[in-house]
Amino acid sequence: MIQKAHSLGSKKLIYVRIFVFVFLAGFVLSCTTSVKKHGYIPSKTDLDTLIIGRDNKQSVEEKIGLPVTKGLEGSYYYVRSLFNSPGYKAAELIDRTVVVISFASNDLVKNIETFGIENETIIRLDYRITETELKNNNALRQIFQSISGPSASSLGL
Q1: How many domains does the chain contain in total?
Q2: What whole-number distance in Å separates Cα of residue 141 and Cα of residue 120?
Q3: Does residue 7 sit in the same domain as residue 44?
Q4: Is residue 27 domain-shared with residue 44, that is, in the same domain?
Q5: Which of 45, 53, 78, 147 has the fewest CB atoms nearer than 10 Å to its CB?
Q6: Cβ neighbours of residue 94 under 8 Å, at least 6 residues apart?
Q7: 88 DSSP assignment
C-alpha cells in the first residue's frame, strides 16, 4: 500500500515537471524574433538582363516573372516587404522595396527604377531610365503609404 502511494506521487511529479517544461519552452519560444519576407523583387543581375528599348512586356515576364501589380499607365510593380515579428507582438514593417518597370507606348521597356523608404520619404535607390522622372507616381505612393501592410480590419476579418 505504501509503495503504491509513493508510485502515484512520482507520476504526479513527472506530470508537473512535463507541464513546467512545456510552459517554459513555449514562453521562451514566444519571445524570439523572426524576420519575415513578403513579396518578390527581381535581383540586380535579373534586372541587368533587361534591355531598355528592346525588351517588351512579354519578355520582361519571361525573364523576371510576373509583377505584384500593374499600374494604370502600364507599369509593372514588384514589391518586397520585410517584417520583424517579435514573438507574441504584431509584426512591424522594417523595410519595403519597390521595383518599377515602365513601358513606352509601343510596349518596350522605357525605365527600370528601384525605390525604398527612409524616414517616411520615398527615395530612388537605383535607376536605368530614358525619361528623367516618373510621371504618375500615385501607385508608388499608395504602395508606400500602406506602410504597415494589410491589417485584419482592412481584409474584413
Answers
A1: 2
A2: 11
A3: no
A4: no
A5: 45
A6: 35, 82, 83, 84
A7: T
Q: 97-153: per-residue pLDDT in tens?
A: 999 999 998 999 999 999 988 877 788 888 787 655 555 566 666 666 665 555 444
The Cα-based distances of 76 to 34, 91, 105, 139 in angstroms read: 30, 27, 14, 10
CA–CA dist 81, 41 (Å, integer)? 10
Residue 122 is assigned to a structural domain of this protein:
yes
Instruction: Tell me: do 127 and 90 sit in the same domain.
Output: yes
Residue 151 resides in a domain: no
| Residue 102 vs residues 11, 81, 110, 140: alpha-carbon distances, Å | 69, 21, 5, 12
Q: Which range of residues forms the domain containing residue 18?
A: 1-31
Query: What pTM, to 2 d.p., does this model score?
Result: 0.66
**Same domain flag for 3 and 42:** no
- Please give the Cα distance from 83 to 81 (Å, whole number): 7
Q: Looking at the structure, do residues 18 and 89 belong to the same domain, yes or no?
A: no
pLDDT digits (tens, 9 = 90+) for 16-75: 888 888 888 777 766 667 788 889 999 999 999 999 999 999 999 999 999 988 888 889
Run of H or E including 80: strand 76-86
Residue identified by cell 517588351 is: 56
